[in-house]
Design brief:
The complex is a heterotrimer.
Chain A: H1 17-43, E1 52-53, E2 59-67, E3 71-78, E4 81-88, H2 96-106, E5 112-123, E6 126-130, E7 137-144, E8 151-163, H3 165-171, H4 177-189, E9 195-199, E10 205-212, H5 219-222, E11 229-239, E12 242-247, E13 253-254, H6 272-283
Parallel strand pairs in A: 4-6, 10-12
Antiparallel strand pairs in A: 1-5, 2-3, 2-5, 3-4, 5-6, 5-7, 8-9, 8-11, 9-10, 11-12, 11-13
Chain B: H1 3-28, E1 49-55, E2 59-66, E3 69-76, E4 86-91, E5 94-95, E6 101-102, E7 107-112, E8 119-124, E9 129-135
Antiparallel strand pairs in B: 1-2, 2-3, 3-7, 4-5, 4-6, 4-8, 8-9
Chain C: H1 12-39, H2 45-73, H3 78-82, H4 84-107, H5 114-120, H6 133-149, H7 153-158, H8 161-169, H9 171-183, H10 186-189, H11 193-223, E1 227-229, E2 232-237, E3 246-251, E4 254-261, E5 264-269, E6 283-285, E7 288-290, E8 297-298, E9 315-316, E10 318-321, E11 324-327, E12 341-342
Antiparallel strand pairs in C: 1-2, 2-11, 3-4, 4-5, 5-9, 5-12, 6-7, 7-8, 10-11
Helix pairs in contact in C: 1-2, 2-4, 2-11, 4-5, 4-6, 6-9
Classes of the chains: A alpha+beta, B alpha+beta, C alpha+beta.
């Protein structure tokens, strides 16, 4: 049968030789495309952070409850060395729904010692805990323990991205950038504290809990800025192992860096966050 | 091919050929395609006689004598993978009572240590786990 | 042929086709997962699934889109066209897994309805690089769903052929949406020359194939315009038509196919009742005009499908003057009996 005379009918079994050959070549080409495509797409992924979310493991921690302005537990690790652990709820929610019961029972839990059982989330020196059940929060003592006031460091400008700490420090990979933006918006909208993640010339990251100029939560006002590269100025405060940044969202500027992974950091010699680190080091 | 179908395809591809490459170009125009160099520049502030150095992918520890006294510099090269980290000297195989300090950020951390300390341990009190033993 | 609707009328070719589809999809997922676990082991399961099935769906979409033009350019690719719908439905399944996981991962367990979140979590509709890319993916998925859901012959019958075809032409809109979904989404963050180039080249290949095919089709249309004489159109010489095959002509804006078989000539409307296939590119098998796309059959002398099938197409009257074939451009009602005219064997 000449090639021209070959005629394919799907429900009849015979297929002409020329047709069969062509089809075989096509299938081989497709399989090659599959292999090469899978290789290229898989290989072309930015490296993931080694952040941790202990989804299947519960840990118990004890500390003083405070809201500065977001719910946290100040844990005395050892010898009065403290770690402020951010409290979170399930999914894209903050801890508030899970603290209702204990608040109702004990009245005011501010500055009281609590025991919290939950799933730890941690990365790069920051730790958070996800509470799954209200009964996992218990009061250890009714004594009110006053906390040291927050130290004001100064006023400065920073470049970075507003992220939600639950995803960024553990739960999602990647937990930042445009891909993750919707999730970050949902989390911050659900009460999870917004954090400004900055990276300096030495690829060292610093994190700032964002609040408004009065130190109150800023979840709603910050939403349009989440997941983008920003230049933010504000008042820096230090609370043991966390920095706070009091900002006015009207002063936020979008930077021209198109992604957080700029190869050559466009910071000049007076690069903001490096400047800040030096200034802070000098003040201590 | 029916003529209506040919016409429809022609219009559609005319639009696609104009719109898609234009949009593709403008979306990637400002992007940076270079791989960012993620390895941090290791800050080292050693001024003195180095006694011992211990190095691994995560940490570099340098024990050295300086005008101030004996110093231990711990450089955290990769972001910490622990819920908390406290540095202890190790005496007779056990963690000392008093810790040296808390480690949380990347970069260099320097501590004044007693001359008798030669071994150290990074410990996570929240998970009650030893992160790393530092033996020179 | 649509007598009693079954999910799939299996035959050996469909089974082979589907085996290749399933094998290729599994191979892709395995290689993607393998390479990721080796080179980017810190990934999470959700990210792995989302990216594996998303990239798989895009590659499948490109393969699907080249089948149409390839079949027009070289009839040996027709078997790929035959069961293309299975490929389409499989692609939809991969896209659905990608979309479903993404919807859950990025929009669920929050303070609003996840679908509402898709459209409102990012309100930068007036920006290009900040555009809510997930909306584009969502809309493309809706189109693919509509296409997959109506890919069965049942819908072909119950939506008119025109409506069905219009719906399925939306694949091109979905294609554009998918490309922009990637360029305004993943590429804004994971920017690699290799992947951007891969997609750009993919688009180029699909576009070029369509352009080349389009040019050929336009040439074919021009070449077959017929000349009017006394109410009869002069079309061609008998010898121009191959035995058991047909030649296609444009008659009063309609395409007509004139078949030669057993020393006879018959003319029928070129468009198959099933999915609009070009009957004139078919062949006479067992005395029946057989459509090259899915093998639907019609008797040449009355345009009716052989019993128990019920499809009917319009027939045309022919006359022979010497060796010159003439056609009466007035189409007869579908299923009308027209005596085939005898012609001399060449």
């Amino acid at each position: 049968m000449s090639k021209k005379d070959e005629f394919y009918v799907g429900y009849l079994d015979e297929v002409g030789t020329s047709t069969r050959k062509r089809l075989k070549r096509f299938v081989v080409a497709v399989l090659l495309l599959v292999l090469v495509g899978a290789g290229i797409f898989a290989f072309s992924q930015r490296p993931f952070k080694n952040s941790t979310f202990e989804l299947t493991q519960e840990t118990e921690i004890e500390g003083i409850y405070h809201e500065s302005p977001y719910p946290m537990l100040k844990v005395n690790l050892v010898d009065k060395q403290f770690k402020n652990v951010i409290l979170l709820g399930f999914g894209k929610s903050n801890a508030d729904p899970y603290l209702q019961d204990i608040k109702a029972m004990a009245g005011d839990i501010m500055n009281k010692k609590l025991k919290v059982k939950g799933n730890l989330i941690y990365y790069n020196g920051k730790t958070l805990i996800q509470i799954l059940k209200p009964e996992n929060v218990t009061i250890v003592s009714d004594d009110v323990i006053p906390l040291l006031p927050v130290k004001t460091v100064g006023v400065d400008i920073f470049e970075g991205e507003v992220i939600d700490p639950k995803c960024y420090f553990g739960v999602m990979k990647p937990g930042q950038g445009k891909i993750h933006r919707s999730c970050a918006v949902r989390c911050i909208s659900g009460g999870i504290p917004p954090v400004l993640a900055t990276t300096d010339d030495n690829a060292i990251s610093e994190y700032f809990l964002l609040t408004d100029l009065e130190g109150k939560p800023i979840n709603e006002a910050i939403l349009p800025f989440v997941g983008k590269n920003l230049r933010v100025n504000g008042v820096v405060e230090k609370m043991e192992d966390w920095y706070l940044l009091k900002i006015d969202t009207k002063g936020i500027v979008y930077t021209h860096k198109t992604n957080v992974y700029a190869a050559n950091n466009s910071c000049q010699s007076d690069c903001a966050s490096l400047h800040f680190r030096e200034a802070f080091a000098r003040s201590h | 091919m029916a003529s209506g179908l040919l016409k429809a395809h022609t219009y559609i591809w005319f639009v696609l050929l104009l719109a898609v490459p234009t949009l593709m170009f403008f979306s990637v125009r400002n992007l940076n395609f270079n791989e960012r160099n993620n390895t941090p520049v290791e800050e080292s502030e050693i001024v003195g006689d180095i006694i011992a150095v211990d190095e691994n992918p995560q940490f570099r520890t340098v024990l050295y004598d300086s005008p101030r006294g004996r110093l231990l510099e711990l450089v955290v090269k990769q972001p910490l993978q622990s819920a908390s980290a406290i540095l202890y000297p190790v005496v007779d195989g056990e963690r000392a009572e008093k810790s040296l300090g808390q480690i949380s950020t990347q970069g260099s951390h320097t501590f004044l240590v007693e001359d008798r300390f030669e071994q150290f341990q990074l410990f996570d009190p929240i998970k009650n786990e030893i992160i790393i033993e530092i033996e020179f | 042929m649509g007598l009693d609707y079954q999910w799939v009328l299996w035959n050996k070719h469909k089974k082979t086709y589907d085996k290749v589809i399933v094998f290729s999809m599994l191979l892709y997922i395995l290689v993607f997962v393998g390479v990721t676990l080796v080179f980017k082991p810190e990934t999470s399961i959700e990210t792995l699934v989302i990216r594996a099935f998303g990239s798989l769906a895009i590659i499948m979409l490109h393969v699907i889109l080249i089948i149409g033009p390839l079949s027009r350019l070289d009839s040996r690719f027709m078997p790929l066209l035959y069961n293309r719908r299975h490929l389409g439905v499989s692609m939809f399944i991969a896209a659905f897994i990608h979309g479903g996981f993404s919807l859950f991962q990025f929009h669920a367990l929050g303070d609003v309805n996840p679908v509402y979140s898709v459209f409102t979590s990012n309100m930068d509709y007036n920006s290009l690089t900040n555009f809510p890319f997930q909306v584009l993916g969502f809309l493309a998925l809706l189109i693919f769903f509509a296409m997959a859901a109506t890919s069965h012959d049942f819908y072909l019958k119950n939506l008119s052929t025109k409506t069905w075809k219009r719906l399925h032409m939306l694949v091109y809109l979905a294609y554009a949406l998918v490309i922009m979904h990637v360029f305004l989404g993943a590429f804004q963050q994971d920017s690699y020359v290799a992947t951007a180039l891969l997609l750009a080249v993919g688009f180029l290949v699909v576009a070029l194939l369509h352009i080349v095919t389009g040019i050929k089709e336009v040439r074919k249309t021009k070449a077959t315009k017929a000349l009017l004489e006394d109410g009869w159109l002069q079309v061609c010489q008998v010898s121009e038509i191959e035995e058991d095959r047909a030649k296609i002509f444009t008659v009063e804006k309609e395409r007509v196919a004139i078949f030669k078989y057993n020393g006879k000539l018959s003319a029928i409307h070129n468009v198959c009742k099933h999915q609009g296939g070009p009957l004139g590119e078919g062949k006479i098998i067992d005395g029946c005009i057989t459509c090259p796309w899915h093998g639907y059959q019609y008797l040449p002398h009355n345009g009716q499908s052989p019993p128990p099938f019920t499809e009917k197409i319009a027939a045309y009257r022919l006359k022979l003057v010497g060796s010159q074939v003439y056609i009466n451009p007035v189409a007869l009602a579908e299923g009308t009996e027209v005596t085939p005219i005898p012609c001399n064997h060449e």
